[in-house]
Sequence to fold (521 residues):
Amino acid sequence: MPTVTFLGHAGVAVDAQAFHLLADPWLAPTGAFLGAWHQYPRNDHLNPDAVLDADWVAVSHEHLDHFDPWVIDRLPVRTRILIPRYPGPAFRERMAAAAGGRQVIEIEPWGKYPLDNRGSWITVIPELSPMCHDAAFLIVADGRGILHCNDARLTAAQARRAKHLAGDRLDLMALQTSGASWHPICYEYPAAEMAELSLSKRISKLRAVQRLVRQTEPELAVPFAGPPCFLDAEVEHLNWVLGQEDGAFCDPEVSTAWLREHLPRQRWDHFLPGDAIDLDTGEITRDPVSAEFSFADADRGDYLKRYAADRAPALAAVLAEYPEPGPDLFDRFAAHFAHLGGLSDYFRRRIAMTVRFEITGPNGGAWDVDFGEDGVTVAVAGPDVRPHYRITTAGRWLDAVLTGRMAWEDLLISFRLSLYRDPDVYNDHLVGLLKHANAPALQAVEEYETGRDESERITVDCDGARYDIPRYCPHAGEDLSVGAVVRDGRIHCLAHNFAFDLATGECLNARAANLTSRKLP
Ligand code: FES
Fold:
């Protein structure tokens, strides 16, 4: 005691002397995100009655591979649900709707919330920028420290502070190494460019994990939280991302091998659904069913075929819930964007471009949304307009967003769409507007970005020149003195992989605030 049992993906169970706590359990047999994502390896051999008999369930954020309504619905009424307090109401409201009569408690960032009367507690550590509503959990159970990072990209300073708060010792640190986002895999890149971007994504993710672990030196570091696999016909072609040599997402086995090689004095391990570790003795118990599983490329095809066949009825039921939209689709689309465009002048001005939506299926069409200085206009796409972003998806998925059954971010993460941008530059505010879609959350981002303190500065050397730059990344506050790589006249922030030109300060791969850089004599 205490024991940590891995439930697959980012899910863990913590069994202490006085409580059974789950963090981010994802068990739904329908997967998540419109049935596009499935747990990999599968975890449906775990007994839900035993797993879900919990005193506490902590859910870090609203992505459906972490916030699983299937799980929430099956919890005992006594289970108390813990979520981070974010600037907007979206997650709180969504969880309250799923929770029924169960108590939902919001935890303040860095505030210790007691789990028993023996000194155990939990806290949440949100990403610095309110643009991303992701948070890590720091749990101290029977005196043992567990840092469960899930999808949160903590800065080095946050990770060090977490260790200090846990008594200067982390017994277990679990970190996401697969970074399953829609870039680059949903973009229309030529094959060679896709391969290059995928490799760069893998490496930057692993480097970010390496950096955090180097800063905190936990007793045991564990790559976890993905990747998922794809079982439905519309998205099954995406399983190439699981390739151990050249996929975009690193599985825990590949991640562990890479990280062991690059930080050899650190203790690393990875766990499959049902594996458990006793944090007092270090004893590991392997799950006999999961022990049969292999991440190897040669074994994947048959495994996924059987998995897809088993889940086919559940998937068919999910898809049947999303009928084709009616003839008013365009009108509802236009009203939706008129509403979004009115939520924040700041976001609209930062987006400042035309986004084309190509909606396939009945009552679809090509529609342009222009984010201008004075407002948003929506029109049927004209031949003379050159959009900067193009998003292609089916009308039935768009309909689910317009009716509020699904958030934009759920659709993006479902990968049931394709994207193109010209120039090939990430627009953080476009994605931010779509994913938050409420005024308080957007206001919090504006205040964060316009109130940044750049008084603390550092000097970096590159190719024989010296540059004076702010210590903290203008995107989301990473400490660039430890969380960045300098080469070829650029500084690459490891938190979200933005690259800045040291001579001009310009952000080269995203439409983000520039670095205020100055070349020193
Ligand atoms: S903090 Fe996001 S790229 Fe630097």
In short: Residues 191-216 form the longest helix (26 residues). The pocket of FE2/S2 (inorganic) cluster is lined by residues 473, 475-478, 493, 495-496, 498 (CB under 6 Å). The two ends are 59 Å apart (CA to CA).
